[in-house]
């Protein structure tokens, strides 16, 4: 079985698979790239994870995630920055272990409002400050920091950067900082075409992630992503925007969905390859 050569299976889609299993089912499904998450990497240790990736022959499309640096107290902010510096080192090591074409991209999820804090502009300003504190470390490691805007329903608890335009407002302040275009988070944005084109003009698209928006929303809105073709997003239209903006890298499928998580990881990998070919527009 072979999948589209630009398809990458993000580990979040097969959340309950450990790293060896995730690598194995990805390869078996004919998928040649994987998006890694820090928790399964930490479960085996960075050196062992890099060796497993090297043995798999897969490309690495990104590491998720850094960020969560909106805390207002100094100690928590220092701890977050230290954790992000470790994530930068992990990203570099895993990309180096991957097959040719691997991308040293660290996905940044900004973080939400601190407890009791209602100052949304202040939290967004702290995101820019944190990126500024990390850019030299990332550049030294050859890592691209990729800011991921999140749908506004997550602004309070997960991501105060809500639009691609807001992500670009931060990224464009620095060399070597990009953005993530995730269809689940941006498909609704009336300025999406304009902002994707803007990102393309300055070479800022570091990652493209696909999935679908399903309704009715589940009780946990975090798990509202569906398999491509199961929801409401015009995926070929968004893909065309991203392609026209010059992005030519791997395209990750990242799905948070309890039913998918509960299914066999190998079956989901194969289903992902089929749905990608049928609905993404590449």
What do you see in this structure?
The protein has 282 residues and is α/β, with parallel strands linked by helices. The protein has a single domain (7-279), classed as Divalent-metal-dependent TIM barrel enzymes (TIM Barrel, Alpha-Beta Barrel), CATH 3.20.20.150. 45% of the residues lie in helices and 16% in strands. It is built from eleven helices and ten strands. It has helices at residues 19-28, 38-44, 46-56, 74-97, 120-141, 164-171, 183-186, 192-201, 235-244, 258-262, 265-279, and strands at 7-10, 33-37, 59-67, 105-109, 144-147, 177-182, 205-210, 212-213, 225-226, 251-253. An eight-stranded parallel β-barrel has the order 1-2-3-4-5-6-7-10, surrounded by seven helices. It has a two-stranded antiparallel ribbon with strand order 8-9. Helix 5 (120-141) links the parallel strand 4 (105-109) and strand 5. It is globular, with a radius of gyration of 17 Å. The model has no long low-confidence stretch (mean pLDDT 97).
Strand content: 15-25%
Give the CA-based shape: globular
What distance separates the N and C termini? 18 Å
Taking Cα atoms only, what radius of gyration do you get, to the nearest Å? 17 Å
CATH architecture label: Alpha-Beta Barrel
Biggest sheet statistics: 8 strands, parallel, barrel
Give the low-pLDDT segments.
none
Mean pLDDT score: 97
CATH topology name, in short, is: TIM Barrel
Specify the oligomeric state: single chain
**H/E element order:** EHEHHEHEHEHEHHEEEHEHH
How many domains comprise the coordinates? 1
Order of strands across the biggest sheet? 1-2-3-4-5-6-7-10
Helix percent reads: 40-55%
> Structural class, judged by helices and strands?
alpha/beta
Mind telling me the CATH superfamily name? Divalent-metal-dependent TIM barrel enzymes
The first-level CATH class is given as Alpha Beta
Number of strands: 10
Number of helices: 11
